[in-house]
Design goal:
about 300 residues, alpha+beta, Protein Transport Mog1p, Chain A, seven-stranded antiparallel sheet, about 30% strand, disordered N terminus
């Protein structure tokens, strides 16, 4: 069982891969009257998450046992049982967490994080692509797991989690998630270099913005070769592709110059290395990006490499 700071036992890892844990029940409580006032205010393109969550209307029988909890900037360290560093690495601004429950103690937790930009919100969601999930269209992209829904839209990342898996609780999870997603802007733009990944056969795409994010992606030895500040980890059948993005072509070339000392051997325009398990790593420089392929099947690798832009 996984116990959150709010005293709820979840028979599954929280909606965070162990990083984005639910908030603690302490500090920064807003009075209920303030929450109601927020609900009455007009919305802008970049609203306070608390003002957005205040507009939710739980179904009859679902009530809030306490006021929402909020955090801004470094206050997030006081509210999260680990994982605040990851949010800050992406770029965190402010957040709200609100719990509703029934008389029979069924409970749902709603969390909404405003990040510094849309890629940050997307990045948080992208790291959750693990285990069984169903991709959906809430906001600008969502993931449905057994107990919860997570999504991103504009600069916001949100999640709605039911502590129970019964049909009534999960129906309310879906209903509240749809309400919240509908309140968010859908104008989040991702960097143009994201489009350099091949689309054919793409299974998952995870965006990291530093070593903390990259350390939470099972990228194998390829992740330890270079020093990227941001990039994508994409999976294809039989192939993993790390797209490491640098400020300019000179910075990427400087990283590639380290290839020989990392055991990579120049083979034409590529650098290659064979691992102990027989898999191969191939590195290619393309402008301000390094493409690091890991694979066991040469034909599959070439198909993915040929589709990269």
């Amino acid at each position: 069982m996984h116990r959150t700071g709010m005293g709820i036992d979840y028979p599954f890892p929280p909606p965070s891969l162990g990083l984005l844990t639910p908030m603690k029940r302490r500090h920064f409580l807003r009075p209920a009257a303030v929450f109601l006032l927020l609900a009455a205010l007009p919305l802008s393109a970049a609203d306070d998450p608390a003002a957005l969550v205040a507009r939710l209307t739980p179904a009859p029988g679902w009530t809030a046992p306490e006021a929402p909890r909020t955090a801004a900037g470094d206050d997030l360290f006081d509210l999260i049982d680990g994982g605040a560093e990851l949010y800050h690495e992406y770029g965190f601004k402010r957040a709200v967490s609100w719990q509703v429950e029934t008389a029979t103690r069924a409970s749902i937790q709603i969390e909404l994080y405003e990040m510094v930009d849309a890629p940050a919100a997307y990045g948080v969601l992208s790291l959750m692509q693990s285990g069984p999930f169903t991709a959906g269209s809430l906001g600008q992209g969502s993931l449905r797991f057994g107990y919860y829904v997570a999504f991103w839209s504009g600069p916001y990342y949100g999640s709605v989690t039911g502590a129970q898996k019964d049909a009534a609780t999960q129906a309310e999870v879906d209903r509240l998630a749809a309400q919240l997603a509908a309140l968010l802007p859908r104008d989040g733009a991702l960097p143009a270099w994201f489009g350099r990944l091949p689309e054919a056969g793409l299974q998952t795409r995870k965006f990291f913005r530093g070593r903390i994010g990259l350390s939470n992606i099972p990228a194998g030895p390829a992740a330890e070769l270079f020093a990227p500040k941001e990039g994508l980890c994409a999976t294809y059948p039989g192939v993993q592709l790390l797209l490491l993005h640098y400020p300019d072509a000179a910075a990427a070339a400087a990283q590639l110059a380290r290839a020989p000392e990392l055991g990579l051997v120049a083979t034409g325009a590529e650098f290659t290395r064979t691992e102990a398990d027989g898999s191969k790593i191939v590195v290619q420089a393309r402008g301000e990006d390094l493409f690091v392929f890991s694979f066991t099947d040469e034909a599959r690798f070439r198909a993915v490499a040929d589709g990269a832009r």
